TrEMBL record:
Region annotated Disordered, chain positions: 1-21
Protein's UniProt name: Conserved hypothethical protein
Organism field: Pseudoxanthomonas suwonensis (strain 11-1)
Family matches, as Pfam families: DUF4259
Superkingdom of origin: Bacteria
Length: 137
């Protein structure tokens, strides 16, 4: 799985994806990953799911409610500091749909985590992210 943690950026795929953010000045790459996951039907593979979770964490961080802050998130923190746009309500709703898809019983990422001793921690991590993305109004 290339994962060392249940956190959003606790895997190789998410870290690699985040490295590409510096080339963008808006949430376009975030939206693209979330849309792909939300629309995946029965084809959501683990890598796409890991990217979707990382993208959702980027949005949570943009709202000041990130669930992970460490050396793995520094590139994201720096990128967010360099842009001026904020996530739209529609983008936050898309993130919620993508996370629901990641948690679905036929999600390859969920299946991989179910086989580990850290499944409950991973589920809690996703739930914290869902809470962080909810509209606070």
């Amino acid at each position: 799985m290339g994962a060392w943690s249940h956190e959003p950026f606790g895997n190789d795929t998410a870290a690699d994806w985040a490295d590409g953010l510096e080339e963008s000045r808006d949430f376009g790459p975030v939206a693209a990953v979330l849309q792909r996951a939300a629309d995946s039907g029965e084809d959501l593979d683990a890598g796409e799911a890991e990217e979707a979770v990382a993208a959702a964490e980027v949005l949570a961080k943009a709202l000041g409610r990130g669930t992970q802050s460490d050396a793995y998130t520094e590139p994201v923190d720096e990128w967010l500091a360099s842009i001026t746009v904020k996530p739209s309500v529609e983008l936050l709703q898309l993130a919620q749909r993508a996370l629901a898809r990641v948690l679905a019983p036929d999600s390859e990422l969920r299946e991989l985590w179910e086989e580990s001793d850290d499944f409950a921690q991973w589920q809690s991590s996703i739930a914290a992210l869902q809470t962080a993305l909810r509209d606070s109004h």
